[in-house]
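# nightly structure sweep
# worker-07 picked up a monomer target from the shared queue
# config: single-sequence mode, recycle default, output format = structure tokens
# input follows
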Amino acid sequence: MKSLPPESGLPDRGRPAGKRRRRWILRGAGLLLAAFLALNALAFRHAEAMMTYRDGGRRSKPPEALTLPEKAWVLLTGVNLPRPETCGSPDSLSPDATELELLHPDGVRLNAWYADRGPGTPLVIVFHGYGADKCSLLPEAVTWLDLGCSVLLVDFRGSGGSSESYTTLGVEEALDVRLAVETARTSLRHGRIILHGVSMGAAAILRAVAYHGVHADALVLEAVFDRMRTTVANRFHAMGLPAFPAADLLVFWGGKRMGYNGFAHNPMEDAKRVAMPTLIFQGQYDQRARPEDGKRVFDALPGEKHFVVFPEAAHVSFVTHNPGLWKSALSPVLGGQGRKLSEEERP
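# output follows
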């Protein structure tokens, strides 16, 4: 029997099935591409909201405090982060405190309050965290004064009495740290300088020391994160949501928006270049800068160092939460002897 050629009109049973498969593959690829583009657009919007302060409105709640409907709304619209405004006048720090203006060569202006307790006293320069201003650290600053130190309480760019309306989560704020230290050395003339930073402020200090030639006699770092990606992911975990890939996209687009590589902003790596005496304080229940995150920074430090975990503390003011522990833990940088940590203080 002769075989019939393909053009004989008999159906090719494989061809329609193959076309259907290709059609489904193309549809699936199109849906994945559309979802990827939509997720990137959403991540860009969130990054914009997180790094540029808005005018007015009510600030979004912390991620761990959001209800389910509030989480959905924040995921769709982004956080609302009004520009942090100053709380008052230098009198809030001390009756004899004065206001200073620190000027960058590019015109960025920083506002600071200065309380002088004499040239023989150490000067503590205090730097606030993300989405805050210098008033958020008034309890810490007043306690430093009570301990006999002079204090320079600084607003980062974008906050309080300073100029601008953006944040870079510690990258350009490291330049603000350098300016404050240079001003202190040339104009305030104290014998010793201690740098104290909380969260973003701690990251900015490490970066300033590692890459901008800043030197101090000691560092006090509270609630420090180890990597930019980690601290962003922690916020998703605090809402009970998976961090991948949203955290990675936020880090990518946030860095692109502000002109740097977000994945390279890692205090843990910066710490390897920081040899001066350093204290690190972490909260036991802090979901944004976990004890293990701070411990990785601590382990990377090559010099003299002390690590204290504040029992039952979240992302809060540690001096308010446990003033006795906070004061006693400062003894290594105030000339006292360090002490062995209790089991409650260990990570």
